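CHAIN AND CONFORMATION:
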Amino acid sequence: MNSVLTSDAENIRLDVYLAEKLEKTRSAVLKAIEEGRVLLNGKPPAKAGVKINLGDVIALDFPEPRPISAAPQDIPIDVLYEDNDIVVVNKPQGMVTHPASGSPDGTLVNALLYRVRDLSGINGEIRPGIVHRLDKDTSGVLVVAKNDAAHLALSKQISSKKALRYYYALVVGNVAQDEGKIEKAIARSKKDRKQMAVSEEGRNALTLFKVIERFKGYTLLECELLTGRTHQIRVHMKSIGHPVVGDPVYGKPSPLAPTGQLLHAHKLVLYHPVTGEKMTFTAPVNETFAAALQKLGFGGNLE
């Protein structure tokens, strides 16, 4: 722990207090708590919303982010829509959304900086314009904000569930229910800090699903993401015994998915941050996903 605070507030949530005191985002504070980088009176807090008291000692490790160059790079990207406020793209499988220590370049952000003149600055130099993310090996529709007002409006739509996000997932096994709901809290795994896990100590997470078609040993689902926890669909599917095909973290490799898990964000419904117009964006599944479905004999049509 690299710094210690003594609380000068009473009966306030720990995450709210730290966000205000350190001038950090709530999400950054929540991540630090989930990763065990915050101690309250010498112990990890039971949850981010625990109320603190006057004189409580809070030790925390909030290292400054390593400088990562988010330089413009001439990388082709599939732009579905663009205006003065937003850009909607179809992120390819295998592309990281924004630079990080293991992926300093070649990301969607690098491509956007080359193509788009302005991006919102709310998430700083490393994640400009990024309102929500898709995992590296998850393809599909993603909206990016070109200014701070649009960013705030879109973030509010996602957090309030006004914006709707739909995914296609090919999962292992035959899902018995034609449709269902998975409501299980998700937290950082205590066994492996790079993974997430279902945990009563985690943040609420809700995924709706419905069966599109069943195959021998597999099921094609449409999932609606009602919360946006890290790896949410992948963790939830594993929790009910039906991991996403080819998921290297929560499942196992599959010849049907040689390039990564078969999970695709196929539809995004939102309201334009300035005009209020309802907008729907769709993207077809990637080539690997399409080939897997063809091999299984899928005869339907996906948007």
